[in-house]
Design goal:
The chain is an all-alpha fold. Helix content is 52%, strand content 1%. The longest helix is centred in the middle third of the chain and has 32 residues. It starts with a helix and ends with a helix.
Length: 486
């Protein structure tokens, strides 16, 4: 198709040889191959980092991850070379539905079938062309040993390679399109000039000012501004409320690293709702007291943070009992109890400290506790802790923790990241609709010893017969709109 376009433009330029139209067309001929080249590069660019996730979700069950050794399926390291004689589309079609290509008699498809039959390659009809380019980029990078590596720098360790920023390609394409627009505008003007001269009319040559202020250019500029404004509005609307990497300072410096990481406390011990209800729930201070009746000093902060829990609950750590009528007590009176406790602990940890210094330390620490535990909406340290919410889905989105945690057996880290390594929790995932959909496309349903899925008789049968290696959430209706929007 591109060759036909170039040939037609060349013939047209030769027809008007010696005129301004000829010059303009030759300029267009010089630019068009560059445009086609960039279009080709853009179409075949893959993101290996995305491809890695796609490989794990779709290919790892049958193909060796080192891309060099055979497993159930062939080694994939040479797949691009093997399919090089054929159009890229053929390789995409093979991945999407190999049996259809075999039935159609495609030579490479038949050759592979003869090598590996009767094992049927799983069809991946949900993968887009871009998904497959991402997947192939990862396979090629692993096979060549270039994926995940960067050039070493003296005195430093080799770091993981970040995905390349390809925004420059869009700017180059924009510049090319702008030049083409100006060239085509000039071509149209010269065609009108030739037509008018044949009719005995004369058209004045255009100046740069007249070109830039013409109706056509102004119309294009206005259209571009409308398109840019619309895109910006929609983009900002889509991102409204999203807060990936949001990491607020909480009223209590609670470290998930110490609790979930160092002490191996199960996430569902504190977030008990995750296994049995829609919400995971933020644990009440009474949950904290399950341990902190005994553990009275923090690993890093001593009494500073744990005293906040005691002050919230009304627990007296000196008597190991709850204070009577605590909620009716003033913060000043409550402060006397906890400052005494703080001073007592400070003296026990620091030999030779005077009573005055211990009381001054306790006073400063209690003031910090009051500042942390009170706000415009909470005047007293007593009562529930005002944790700052990090993850917040829109009201029109239905998400059920128990469906994912208990039935789907999804690990908390899948959505929340390695919380056991976070001193301060942040929002790990985007929580966007596209992120959820991709997860449903890629995640295999855990059928094994899971009675919840016994009703999917046909899928169980197909897996036993080897007709499929897995069932994704998409296969059981995970992309139906009403599942999440009701």
């Amino acid at each position: 198709m591109s060759q036909n376009i170039l040939a037609a433009l060349y013939k047209l330029s030769m027809r008007y040889r010696g005129t301004f139209l000829h010059i303009n067309l030759r300029g267009l001929l010089a630019i068009l191959p560059l445009l086609l080249l960039f279009a080709s590069l853009s179409a075949q660019t893959g993101n290996p980092d995305k491809g890695k996730d796609l490989f794990k979700a779709n290919c790892a069950a049958c193909h060796n991850k080192n891309m060099k050794d055979k497993m159930t399926g062939p080694a994939l390291g040479t797949v691009l070379d093997d399919w090089a004689p054929y159009p890229r589309k053929d390789l995409h079609d093979w991945i999407r539905n190999s049996q259809a290509m075999i039935a159609a008699g495609h030579p490479k498809a038949v050759e592979l079938w003869n090598q590996y039959k009767p094992v049927v390659m799983t069809p991946f009809t949900s993968l887009s062309d871009q998904d497959m380019d991402d997947l192939l980029a990862y396979i090629d990078g692993v096979a060549k040993g270039t994926y995940g590596k960067a050039a070493p720098v003296a005195g430093t360790e080799v770091q993981s390679e970040e995905p390349a920023n390809k925004s420059w390609m869009y700017w180059v394409l924009f510049a090319v399109f702008a030049i083409i627009a100006l060239v085509l505008s000039n071509i149209i003007f010269n065609l009108r000039k030739i037509s008018s001269s044949q009719e005995g009319k004369t058209i004045k040559d255009r100046t740069l000012k007249s070109v830039l202020t013409s109706k056509g250019v102004l119309g294009v500029v206005i259209l571009a501004l409308i398109a840019l404004g619309s895109f910006t509005t929609v983009h900002n609307a889509i991102n409204f409320g999203r807060q990936q990497n949001y990491q607020p300072t909480q009223p209590i410096n609670f470290s998930h690293k110490i609790h979930a990481g160092d002490n191996k406390i199960d996430c569902k011990f504190c977030h008990d709702g995750a296994r049995r209800s829609k919400q995971s729930i933020i644990p009440g201070a009474s949950t904290c007291m399950s341990c902190h009746k005994a553990v009275k000093k923090g690993t890093l902060s001593g009494t500073a943070e744990i005293t906040k829990i005691y002050a919230s609950n009304g627990f007296n750590p000196m008597t190991d009992s709850y204070i009577d009528n605590y909620m009716s007590m003033s913060d000043k009176d409550a402060g006397k109890i906890y400052k005494k406790w703080i001073a007592q602990q400070y003296r026990s940890e620091n030999d030779g400290v005077s009573t005055a210094d211990a009381e001054a330390f306790a006073k400063d620490q209690w003031n910090d506790i009051v500042n942390s535990m009170t706000s415009e909406t909470k005047a007293s340290v007593k009562g529930p802790i005002e944790w700052i919410r990090i993850h917040n889905l829109p009201d029109f989105v239905y998400f059920n923790h128990s469906q994912h945690v208990t039935v789907g057996q999804i690990a908390c880290q899948k959505c929340h990241g390695k919380v056991e390594e976070m001193d301060v929790v942040r929002q790990y995932s985007t929580l966007s609709m596209g992120w959820c959909i991709n997860c449903h496309r890629e995640t295999d349903v855990k059928f094994t010893e899971n009675p919840y899925y016994d009703s999917y008789v046909n899928y169980h049968k197909e897996m036993k017969e080897g007709k499929r290696t897995s069932v994704t959430v998409e296969d059981i209706g995970g992309l139906e709109c009403q599942k999440c929007h009701y």
